[in-house]
Amino acid sequence: MTDDFITNLPKAELHLHIEGSLEPELMFALAERNKVAIPFKSVEDVRAAYSFTNLQTFLDIYYAGAAVLKTEEDFHDLALAYFDRVAQDGVVHAEIFFDPQTHTHRGIPFDVVANGLFAGIDAARAKHGMSIGLIMSYLRHLDEEDAFRTFEQAQPWLDQMIGVGLDSSEMGHPPSKFARVFEASAEAGLLLCAHAGEEGPPAYIHEALDILRVDRIDHGNRALEDPVLVARLAREAMTLTVCPLSNVALRNVDRIEDHPIDRMLDLGLRATIHSDDPAYFGGYIGENYRQTARARNLSRGQIVTLARNSFLGSFLDDEAIAGHLATLEAYVTAHP
Ligand code: HPA
Ligand SMILES: [Zn+2]
């Protein structure tokens, strides 16, 4: 399987935190533009700090890095840089997360964030012909009241958003903590996903399914510890947005050679490959596919299945999904 085949394979990105695409070069440029002090002397200094032992050690640096984002222009530049990058990775559809509370809690109005991101999204749609959706993610280390305040601030924007998510520190913050705000979000017409089973136990995945009633699980790796849960996820064709380089960087998997992505496929799970926070974890979606394919010796069929699953698991309507699947099959036929 050539790297070119994998890179250009049409695919959807479904698990990407836009704040996690902030490259050190842009972090420095924005720190200068906005006169924000950052605790690094050089781009190399920043990269050297990216050595994590678990989710929390990453999140501490990720939230600190986001402090350079201040204006609509910053959010526009951040988003467009991301889409420019993944247009080279065969991404034809993207559903990206943003963390409004990371910004509102440091005094940046919700509308500044949303205006900037949508400007970047509109520019990328026009420039690359990509379809793009925005998912508002609630920070689970904060309380549900704070999530409700965010939901209120988002009201004028809700018809432009496709869904809500749940991210940040997983341990000790089970999905059930957000039952009411997820219910309200669903009633507002938003689709639902939640990080579950990245570090947290299989019980958190059960809660995401039974209490939040999510349409998609982000990560879900620890489902593998619970055969009954695996059988249910397979039966319900529940998409798991798996992020191999993230799993290694955050020490949830020892080495990429040990990654269970092919075991997940063998078990009948609708697993897909994504990038999570590419500026921090060493690679965008194409790099995640290529490194995993190489390390796990994935077959052509498995790689195409992963791309197919990314469209099947998207929040697009059936007609749009069928269109993407036809494009994918045409690509596969044209590259024997
Ligand atoms: O990998 C992640 N896990 C949980 N929350 C996050 N927020 C950004 N990235 C992550
Ligand atoms: Zn994530």
UniProtKB/TrEMBL annotation:
GO terms for biological process: adenine catabolic process; hypoxanthine salvage; nucleotide metabolic process. Substrate binds at residue 277. It catalyses: adenine + H2O + H(+) = hypoxanthine + NH4(+). This is Adenine deaminase. NCBIfam families: aden_deam, PRK09358.1-6. It is an enzyme of class 3 (hydrolase). Its cofactor is Zn(2+). GO terms for cellular component: cytosol. The record marks 219 as: Important for catalytic activity. Binds 1 zinc ion per subunit. Keywords: Hydrolase, Metal-binding, Nucleotide metabolism, Zinc. Catalyzes the hydrolytic deamination of adenine to hypoxanthine. Plays an important role in the purine salvage pathway and in nitrogen catabolism. It comes from Sphingomonas aerolata.
